[in-house]
Amino acid sequence: xxxxxxxxxxxxxxxxxxxxxxxxxxxxxxxxxxxxxxxxxxxxxxxxxxxxxxxxxxxxxxxxxxxxxxxxxxxxxxxxxxxxxxxxxxxxxxxxxxxxxxxxxxxxxxxxxxxxxxxxxxxxxxxxxxxxxxxxxxxxxxxxxxxxxxxxxxxxxxxxxxxxxxxxxxxxxxxxxxxxxxxxxxxxxxxxxxxxxxxxxxxxxxxxxxxxxxxxxxxxxxxxxxxxxxxxxxxxxxxxxxxxxxxxxxxxxxxxxxxxxxxxxxxxxxxxxxxxxxxxxxxxxxxxxxxxxxxxxxxxxxxxxxxxxxxxxxxxxxxxxxxxxxxxxxxxxxxxxxxxxxxxxxxxxxxxxxxxxxxxxxxxxxxxxxxxxxxxxxxxxxxxxxxxxxxxxxxxxxxxxxxxxxxxxxx
Length: 411
What we know:
Largest sheet: 8 strands, mixed
Radius of gyration: 22 Å
Strand content: 15-25%
CATH class of the largest domain: Alpha Beta
CATH architecture of the largest domain: 3-Layer(bba) Sandwich
Number of domains: 3
Shape: globular
Number of helices: 14
CATH superfamily of the largest domain: FAD/NAD(P)-binding domain
Distance between the termini: 66 Å
Number of strands: 20
Oligomer: single chain
Helix content: 25-40%
């Protein structure tokens, strides 16, 4: 390789959880890092805003002090469980099991606040320079390095990280992940205030209406009496059924009797906001020569729940290890960086695969109704479902026919 001078060693596109985690984990290696984000913080990110126990655990794994700072972060509320509403409108409340850290197994925080909390933890990191309102327009790769053109400047580096979400330009220019409607969800979010009827322990709510399956309608409580309301569906189903998501959202709130009462004195705080969710329902190439893809850009969103923040943080952590190795060896080849793909799927694929199978089960609303009814009438079944929320091995039982045979005959 000829002697080339670079502006930075590493460019990270996207300053959300995945990009943050990658940069935070690289605070000690002697690497000069640029982070580019097209927004200005604090900035909104269209999302459900729920933060699972895994999000908290990832922060603690990165740094005990970071996890403790998040526990003291004011712009969030504790969430101690989940309410499932079956297609027959029967509800089931399940409390999370005791968490490993802090006072709650889950939290809810607007991404406007949560992402700002994260970026503040790296804005003074000596080896990091953050460029805001910096939209990446083009990326080119040569044998010697990477060149990035933004709306303001051109930058060069030896390596680039795509942490820039569902519509990643790093993937579009360098990667090979295509939008496939059967592996992609369309979502819509709208903030409200004045929604009533939440569980006393601030459960998140997933409503599985027959007309949305295998998707769902959600209501998540937020700080200051607000709520995150929305729905998500497989893009293939949206196309097949010719569904207008904005109209569907409004119609559900107005037509479902148990929702009408809860929303009758509510106020919409914004117009419905649409977004895309590339779900992790198939393995994809998430690296190549001189680049890695992280988080949503790597399509690591849980197919069943739509949750992606925990996997975004985890992918950032994993990426940092392979970035350090690449610079130590000065080996940025696709063959070498493929080890990152292997580790990501070693850590995540089992749960992603099971979640995909659970998503497919949602095509059978009578089965969902049966499980919810059984859990409401049998405390042992309810306890088992509680354990399944966090235990991948137990969750695997949900996709086996034998599990439902046992429920049917009282096993």
